[in-house]
Design a protein that fits this description.
The structure holds 2 protein chains of 2 kinds.
Chain A lengths: L1 H25 L17 E3 L5 E3 L5 E7 L3 H17 L5 E7 L2 H10 L6 E4 L3 H5 L7 E6 L5 E5 L4 H13 L22 E5 L4 E5 L5 E6 L4 H18 L8 E4 L5 H10 L6 E4 L7 E2 L4 E2 L6 E5 L5 E6 H8 L6
Parallel strand pairs in A: 3-4, 4-5, 10-11, 11-12
Antiparallel strand pairs in A: 1-2, 3-6, 6-7, 8-9, 8-12, 10-15, 13-14, 15-16
Chain B lengths: L1 H20 L1 H6 L2 E4 L1 E5 L8 E7 L2 E6 L4 E5 L5 E5 L14 E4 L5 E5 L4 E5 L5 E6 L7 E3 L5 E3 L8 E4 L5 E5 L5 H5 L17 E5 L5 E5 L4 E5 L5 E6 L3 H13 L5 E4 L2 E4 L2 E6 L6 E6 L3 E6 L5 E6 L6 E2 L3 E2 L5 E7 L7 E5 L8
The chains are: A alpha/beta, B mainly beta.
């Protein structure tokens, strides 16, 4: 009798132990995200073209995103800059994108991505990464496969800081803009842009007297309405007969949001979205810019030479006849 | 004679108009002053400044989006930093609140790592504990006890030790309609926690000053958590806030906490240990600082200089002559200011 009792108790305890082990450790619920220090579930994958890639014994920056999630898309684009900067230091950069092959191929081509991209057609990779309902996640995996960092929110600047931290051992904190900043007397460098009205790619070369309004921002979604409202005032106050300003947005803005907001505010000018960092104004690697807090107005003479660079707010005060502060 | 008679009604009109315009100010003896801003740390490559505290001659600056705490000397030169991006002990991911105690221990709300961390003055991490349930409002008393606003736990203030062990809690929760009347009672349930989100200050006797983020009301508790007073911010500005909220049923500046657009009215408190003067920063579509004496009675209103210059938080400079404040803005979030207190208010 006693032996039978002990056997039953033992069986119950073992069953409990198996239950807790299974549900507590091996099976992760959709809300249990991976955390710092855990082992990343994969150390290799196949890219969307069928090429194998692995990050065994290497540092890896892995980005998961759906193609619709702007924060993820922004980071996937910036990962190209990180890849170019740190590939030679042994960093593996890969994006795992939710979508079909043709969608991913279009995305890779339009964003000029040269790092490997893995296809997650049915969301199974997201489940394996325990992302739950999150459309985006980043992982920094050390050479032993340990997760050094994971988050479901990140800015491009975070990718830079993380890469510098693990690959260089130190993080730089530069001021925005600076190094190759556009100056009066120079020409605006040519740039490739998307015409948001016509939907075409254009090469912009400024060779006439006009104003070029440039919107850069660290937080494009935060600044867009404020910037466009200020721009609207600038447009209203422009000199009679003057050419419409060219309006260029940093590649970090969303084309859809610009179109919607411009339509809401009844803005007439041609609107362009930069394909890459705006030369002379944005620093691609530091994801910074001068004017990242303020829109810039760059004026040119008849030859396209820059005659002035000032904030849109200052330009507005001037056109209103106020003393610039 | 005729001229005199005609002049009397005119004089009466002028006096009546003046009285109509000024009674709230005159009745409460509130004097109005304009604050002059002085930009701080303009050369610091900061990305979003959430808190500025002066301690032992250093400025301690929480540079949230650079995931670090920066120490600058009085010449505004960077001397060192605590933390960097990461998730190990001593690292941060979007930290957004900071307090320093009298012994120089530094307490950081490590927001996206969902924890609080404690550091010695030299930067050595000495502890961490989870930020759960999510707290807003952080202060430290002279015993190194940490005060957090966690209305989910049923009280306004929950007190922890440095290891994260809960010690006690105090302060009764309010309803939205307690502040704005029965006309908003239908929102009471939705704002159950939001209206009880608070900001803190602690004085050298460990009295705790609590400001409701969602209403122009502040309280004082003694070191044992006994309520000493609850006061409404006086003056026409706060009165307009109450009527504005009653009309619009929302405030122009809100914070998304717990998925609720939490009104952001009181933005910070600071107390001068030498004089007992309390400073309460509050805002609607522009910002002010309410100055109160140790009994909580208003003495002055200080107006921030620009309509768009709102602040996230305030602290008092070590000499008691200025308020230090990071700017609240969706664009200019890397700015911090010093506002010299007008001479009748700050220390001479």
């Amino acid at each position: 009798m006693r032996v039978r009792f002990i056997a039953i108790i033992s069986a119950v305890l073992i069953a409990n132990a198996i239950f807790f082990l299974y549900f507590g450790f091996f099976r992760r619920s959709s809300e249990q995200h991976f955390v710092y220090g855990e082992t990343f579930p994969d150390r290799s994958a196949v890219d969307f073209n069928g090429r194998p890639l692995d990050w065994k014994n290497k540092w890896a920056l892995l980005i998961y995103s759906t193609l619709e999630f702007e924060e993820g898309v922004r980071n996937a684009r910036y990962a190209e800059v990180v890849f170019r900067r740190f590939e030679s230091s042994g960093l593996v950069v890969a994006a795992i994108l939710r979508g079909g092959k043709s969608e991913i191929a279009t995305f890779v081509e339009s964003n000029g991505l040269s790092y490997p991209v893995v296809m997650d057609r049915d969301g199974s990779f997201a489940s394996r990464l325990s992302l739950g309902e999150h459309p985006f996640g980043i992982f920094i995996v050390d050479p032993k496969g340990r997760i050094e960092f994971t988050a479901t929110h990140a800015e491009p600047e975070d990718l830079r800081q993380l890469s510098e931290k693990y690959l260089l051992g130190t993080i730089s904190y530069p001021r925005a803009g600076g190094r190759d900043a556009l100056k009066v007397g120079e020409n605006i460098p040519p740039m490739r842009l998307q015409d948001l009205r016509q939907g075409q790619q254009v090469n912009l070369v400024v060779s006439s007297e006009r104003a070029v309004v440039i919107f850069t921002a660290r937080c494009p979604s935060c600044g867009l309405k404020e910037y466009l409202t200020s721009y609207r005032m600038f447009e209203v106050q422009r000199k009679k007969g003057a050419e419409w300003p060219l309006v260029i947005f940093s590649s970090r803005f969303s084309a859809r949001e610009i179109r919607e907001m411009a339509s809401e505010l009844d803005i007439s000018a041609r609107l362009y979205l930069a394909n890459d960092a705006i030369p002379g104004v944005e620093d691609e690697y530091y994801s910074g810019s001068y004017g990242s807090n303020e829109a810039l107005v760059v004026t040119t003479d008849t030859t396209g030479t820059v005659t002035g660079i000032e904030s849109l707010a200052k330009a507005l005060r001037k056109t209103k006849g106020e003393t610039p502060q | 004679m005729k001229r005199t008679v005609r002049g009397i009604p005119n004089a009466i009109t002028v006096v009546a108009t003046l009285l109509l315009l000024s009674p709230p100010i005159a009745a409460q003896g509130l004097r109005h002053y304009a604050l002059a801003p002085q930009r701080l740390f303009a050369d610091l490559p900061a990305k979003s400044i959430h808190q500025v505290v002066q301690k032992w001659g250093s400025y301690v600056v929480l540079d949230g989006a650079n995931h670090r705490v920066v120490f600058l000397n009085s010449a505004m030169q960077v001397e060192r930093q605590i933390g960097k991006i990461g998730q190990a002990l001593g690292e941060f991911y979007y930290p957004n609140d900071l307090a320093v105690d009298k012994d120089g221990y530094i307490y950081v709300r490590d927001s996206m790592n969902r924890r609080f961390q404690v550091f010695e003055w030299n930067g050595k991490p000495v502890g961490e504990f989870p930020n759960s349930p999510e707290a807003h409002g952080l202060a430290v008393n002279s015993r190194g006890e940490i005060l957090l606003g966690q209305p989910q736990k049923g009280k306004l203030v929950t007190v922890y030790d440095r290891a994260g062990k809960q010690l006690r809690s105090f302060g009764e929760l309010h309803k939205l309609s307690d502040f704005y009347g029965a006309g908003v009672a239908d929102l009471d349930a939705q704002y159950k926690h939001a209206i009880n989100r608070v900001k803190f200050a602690v004085d050298s006797q460990d009295n705790v000053y609590v400001g409701f983020m969602g209403a122009p009301v502040f309280q004082k508790y003694d070191a044992n958590g006994r309520l000493l007073f609850e006061k409404k911010i006086g003056g026409p500005e706060a009165a307009a806030i109450v009527t504005g909220f009653q009309k619009d049923r929302k405030s122009p500046v809100r914070r998304g906490i717990d998925d609720i657009p939490t009104p952001h009215i009181i933005t910070g408190l600071a107390v001068d240990n030498a004089t007992g003067t309390l400073y309460v920063s509050f805002q609607w579509d522009r910002g002010w600082v309410y100055v109160a004496n140790a009994s909580g009675d208003g003495t002055a209103i200080l107006e921030y200089p620009q309509r768009d210059l709102l602040v996230q938080n305030i602290s008092l400079s070590e000499d008691g002559k200025a308020l230090l404040a990071p700017r609240l803005s969706v664009v200019k979030f890397d700015e911090a200011y010093m506002f010299k207190l007008p001479s009748p208010i700050g220390k001479k």
